Every structure is written in structure tokens, then in C-alpha cells.
């Protein structure tokens, strides 16, 4: 019932809906120009097993198993606040994520950098690629790992161009449309109820003022169309007489008197 009344009110006050839609569209366009797109750069790094595990003349890629634990530890270290602060220092509005590549089964790290411009995004990506081997060395130095058993890192792919990501703009536009639509519906419904209530109040007042009954003796004669006054009444309020009626009341019919003749009884 409420939804039906709301829909009827929106149709009845369609001009308020049009104004709300226009204002919502303007807000969405404004947000799309204010919120900048995000540029992303990607690179992948693979961990290489130590030389002590590879037989002379062997292929290191055949011994990648068991390096996932080292990759997880390295990802945690690169995601720490101290390391991130050192990398993004001097690059406003930038950031990066270093995690295991879900599309690969080997010890491959996916690095994704974000920035407000393609240049800043690619610069942060290069800085992360520089600190990956350094942090891997620090991790192994803390455990006094011998050089023959140390794991190394190698960049296997690095994108030369940053990709445009408009998800932030799309979220801002959708949020503006949702908020503007809700406000338009609510405000239009409230205005419709207010206007309808005020019109109903005025209508009741006019009806109350026009339906006041007058006593029979105080009812004034009503003028007929030709300008002469008539005296037709009904109980409670004056009723106009029919057009063409006489001004004085109709005379009573006279009873014809029959002449009486004397009878024999009266003669006696």
C-alpha cells in the first residue's frame, strides 16, 4: 500500500523527479571529473633455488618446489609498514601490493603498483623490484645462511606501460547516483504528502463554510431569473421558486352552492 501510494505520488509530482534526476546527473559528472583514475603497473619475480640443490649442469627450474614458504615470508616483509614507507616516500598517492601469484603454481611473486599518473606508478614498481633482492638477503643474513645455500630472486616480466583503472571513478559515480536517487524519492514523497494535505485542509474549510444551514424564518427570498423575488422554501434553506410562478398565492377554489327547493314536508 505504501509503495503504491509512493509510486502514485512520484507520477503526480513528476516535475520534482525531473529536477532530482538532473541534480543527480550533475553530481555524478562532477565526481567523475574530481576523482582521478588509478594507474597500475605489474611485474613478476621468481625465486631461484640455491646452487647447492642444483646438480652440476642441472636446470634450476626443476628444483622450484619447497620455495613457497620463503616466498610467503618475503611477501610479509615487503608488505610491512617500514618497508612500504621507505619505498613510497616522495610519491604522493602511490602504493603497491606484493603477493604470491595465484595464477602460477611456482614460487612467483606478483607486484602491483598504483599511482595517480603512469609515471609515478611505474617508478614505484621499479623501486619495489630493487628492494626485493635486498630484503631477501637481509632475511638470510638474519639466519646466517651460507652463500652456497642462499635463495636468489629474478624478475621474469615487467610491464612497460601502466594500465588505467577506473574502478574508483565508477564507485564514486554509482554512490552519487544511489544517494541522489534515494533523496529524490524521499523528498518527492514528502512534498507530495504536504501539498495533498494542504489542499485537503482548504477543501474541507470551503465545504464547512458553504454548508451552514439557516433557520426557516430567517431565510431570505431568492430572486428569480427575471429579477422578481420569489418565496419558494424548503426546510432548512431557501429554495428558488419555479420560473413564471405568480407572485401571490393561488386562490382557493370556490364551492358552488346549489339552490334548495321547498319540499312537501316543509309545506306541511
Radius of gyration: 49 Å
- Helix/strand order: HHEHHEEHEEHEEEEH
Query: How large is the count of helical segments?
Result: 7
Low-confidence stretches: 212-219, 222-236, 241-247, 264-268
Principal-axis shape: rod-shaped
Binned, the helix content reads 40-55%
- On the 0-100 scale, what is the average pLDDT? 79
- Fourth-tier CATH superfamily name of one domain: EIF_2_alpha
| CATH fold annotation of one domain | Alpha-Beta Plaits
Structural class: alpha+beta
Strand content: 15-25%
CATH class of one domain: Alpha Beta
Q: In CATH terms, what is the architecture of one domain?
A: 2-Layer Sandwich
Q: Please give the number of β-strands.
A: 9
N-C termini distance: 99 Å
Structure notes:
The protein is α+β, with helices and mostly antiparallel strands. Among the domains are: 16-36 and 166-189; 38-165, Alpha-Beta Plaits (2-Layer Sandwich). Helices cover 46% and strands 16% of the residues. The chain has seven helices and nine strands. The chain has helices at 2-12, 14-34, 68-78, 81-88, 118-142, 167-210, 264-267, and strands at 38-48, 95-100, 108-115, 152-158, 163-165, 222-223, 229-230, 233-234, 237-238. α1 packs across α2 (14-34), α1 crosses α6 (167-210) and α2 packs antiparallel against α6. It starts with a helix and ends with a helix.
Amino acid at each position: 500500500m505504501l509503495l503504491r501510494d509512493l509510486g502514485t505520488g512520484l507520477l503526480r509530482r513528476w516535475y520534482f523527479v525531473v529536477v532530482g534526476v538532473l541534480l543527480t546527473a550533475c553530481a555524478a559528472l562532477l565526481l567523475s571529473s574530481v576523482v582521478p583514475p588509478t594507474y597500475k603497473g605489474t611485474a613478476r619475480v621468481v625465486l631461484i633455488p640455491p646452487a647447492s640443490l642444483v646438480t652440476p649442469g642441472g636446470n634450476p627450474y626443476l628444483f622450484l618446489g619447497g620455495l613457497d614458504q620463503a616466498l610467503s615470508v618475503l611477501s610479509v616483509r615487503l608488505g610491512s609498514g617500514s618497508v612500504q614507507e621507505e619505498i613510497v616516500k616522495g610519491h604522493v598517492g602511490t602504493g603497491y601490493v606484493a603477493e604470491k601469484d595465484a595464477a602460477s603454481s611456482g614460487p612467483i611473486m606478483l607486484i602491483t603498483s598504483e599511482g595517480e599518473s603512469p609515471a609515478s606508478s611505474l617508478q614505484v614498481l621499479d623501486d619495489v623490484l630493487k628492494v626485493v633482492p635486498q630484503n631477501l638477503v637481509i632475511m638470510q643474513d638474519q639466519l646466517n645462511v651460507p652463500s652456497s645455500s642462499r635463495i636468489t630472486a629474478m624478475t621474469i616480466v615487467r610491464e612497460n606501460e601502466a594500465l588505467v583503472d577506473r574502478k574508483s571513478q565508477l564507485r564514486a559515480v554509482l554512490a552519487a547516483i544511489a544517494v541522489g536517487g534515494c533523496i529524490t524519492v524521499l523528498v518527492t514523497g514528502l512534498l507530495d504528502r504536504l501539498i495533498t494535505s494542504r489542499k485537503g485542509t482548504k477543501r474541507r474549510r470551503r465545504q464547512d463554510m458553504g454548508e451552514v444551514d439557516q433557520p426557516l424564518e430567517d431565510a431570505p427570498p431568492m430572486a428569480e431569473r427575471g429579477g422578481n423575488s420569489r418565496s419558494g422554501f424548503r426546510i432548512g434553506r431557501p429554495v428558488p421558486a419555479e420560473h413564471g410562478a405568480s407572485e401571490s398565492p393561488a386562490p382557493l377554489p370556490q364551492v358552488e352552492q346549489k339552490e334548495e327547493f321547498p319540499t312537501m314536508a316543509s309545506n306541511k
